[in-house]
């Protein structure tokens, strides 16, 4: 490898330029905007204006509570499910592997709008196929859109359907990079498949699992489209309102950029805190 | 030996008995998307259970086109996704090449910053990006607004850096001895060698642009400048709207991607898996 400052930066410049204009400056800018009163022109510096409002705003705490609730339930369930998919897809006993892979990986290419529309129809109270199927086995219909608990469940089901296969792809690739002879040695020593999973696969896969967790947490933290389109702007009555939706409402409906920036930085702070805790919990013991 | 293979057979049957229902559940929303798109609205909103396609797709599509100019929106989406993919692959592979093949001042910092952005929510840059593009540059409702801000991506650069750094040095040194310029080595030696990785990257970037919703929703909100997902999204929740039409639009957004996915599955999976594997 050669030391060539000029050549290297010639290759890097276009990328770094985009990065500087559309990322570095906005990161600084939104921090500054969060300390300004932006409801009147010209904007003025007022440090406590947005942050003070934030800590006393029931709408913010409602959105925070919903976001954390989805995070705590949906992410672990999805990663566990992705792990089950990956382990079973990796089994040498599996026939017609391509068909199963297609079934689980296909949602990865489906856009948020398209699948939100389908989920809305499928879970419709009177005409949705899900309630019809529930009725056909003697169960009562569930009003997915007018009650908070089923509405939250619906959001979690939708997100899990969309992203479990994505995580399974990453986990599967991680499993396939574990050398075969480790398992062969374990099998010769009569270690059961279940024990092999817990004592070989899981520890060796830890960095990949952490990567999936971090990506999923950051994704779910910003959840916007599903409560926007499926449960109709965070309904019923703010029951599925998320931080992403609050940011959209404040920033782009009320055009209150200062308050929306404070919400954005709250999300960033949470994401960084959770990521650091993850990394700390799974750190390599020296 | 036969007891061993009998045990294997039992395990295999159990595996398929568990996995098949799960796979069917996972395919169900996609199947229902297709079924809905072929049913008239009064069929979708009727008490019976319908699990098989009907023949109403063309009518539904006409209803959709009546509700919003979906064909025009598809045109914008395709043009934007193609342009974006080309530019982004170029930028990303140039940066990846620099990080993989040269030692230079500030390299560690550049890599650390790129890694750091993975854990940073996009929400933090959204508002200033919007203010800048819409108010300062006056570029709202243009293709530039849809293409340029999303050009920064971190996982793609790390993927290309990985791809280029795995190539043997001799290849490039031989060209250097001949006096070939660095940019020619990149264009005519490195890029052709990286073709499978570029394909994986291109597919992922195309898909990201094709499905992108939040940014196009904010920045291109005028009817003639909307992308297809945004145009479709405006119909969801309206009271007088053809749901068969919405489903026809969902199918038009989804089925081409599913076909690409089936044809190029290997590249697809490589592109997604790349983020995690060192």
From TrEMBL, chain A:
What Pfam family does this protein match (any one)? BPD_transp_1
Q: Where do transmembrane segments lie in this chain?
A: 12-35, 68-90, 102-124, 144-164, 197-218, 257-281
How the protein sits in the membrane?
Answer: Multi-pass membrane protein
The protein's matches in CDD domains, at most eight in alphabetical order, are given as: TM_PBP2
Q: Which SUPFAM superfamilies match?
A: MetI-like
Q: Where in the cell is it found?
A: Cell membrane
The primary location reported for this protein is membrane
Domain ABC transmembrane type-1, residue spans = 64-278
Record key words, sorted: Cell membrane, Membrane, Transmembrane, Transmembrane helix, Transport
Q: Which domain of life is it from?
A: Bacteria
Q: Do you know which PANTHER family this protein is assigned to? A: ABC TRANSPORTER PERMEASE PROTEIN, INNER MEMBRANE ABC TRANSPORTER PERMEASE PROTEIN YCJO
Family (UniProt): Belongs to the binding-protein-dependent transport system permease family.
Please report the name of this protein according to its UniProt entry.
Sugar ABC transporter permease
Organism, scientific name: Mesorhizobium qingshengii
TrEMBL record, chain B:
Limits of the ABC transmembrane type-1 domain: 74-264
Q: How does it sit in the membrane?
A: Multi-pass membrane protein
Task: Show the Gene3D superfamilies listed in the entry.
Answer: MetI-like
Which PROSITE patterns does the UniProt entry name for this protein? ABC_TM1
Q: Which UniProt keywords apply?
A: Cell inner membrane, Cell membrane, Membrane, Transmembrane, Transmembrane helix, Transport
What subcellular compartments does it reside in?
Cell inner membrane; Cell membrane
Domain of life of the organism in this record?
Bacteria
Leader sequence residues:
none
Q: Which residue ranges does UniProt annotate as crossing the membrane?
A: 12-32, 70-97, 109-131, 143-164, 185-208, 241-264
Q: What does this protein do?
A: Part of the ABC transporter complex UgpBAEC involved in sn-glycerol-3-phosphate (G3P) import. Probably responsible for the translocation of the substrate across the membrane.
Write down the PANTHER family for this protein, in alphabetical order: ABC TRANSPORTER PERMEASE PROTEIN MG189-RELATED-RELATED, SN-GLYCEROL-3-PHOSPHATE TRANSPORT SYSTEM PERMEASE PROTEIN UGPE
Q: Tell me, how does this one assemble?
A: The complex is composed of two ATP-binding proteins (UgpC), two transmembrane proteins (UgpA and UgpE) and a solute-binding protein (UgpB).
The family classification in the record reads: Belongs to the binding-protein-dependent transport system permease family.
Which named protein is this? sn-glycerol-3-phosphate transport system permease protein UgpE
Organism encoding this protein: Mesorhizobium qingshengii
Gene name as annotated: ugpE
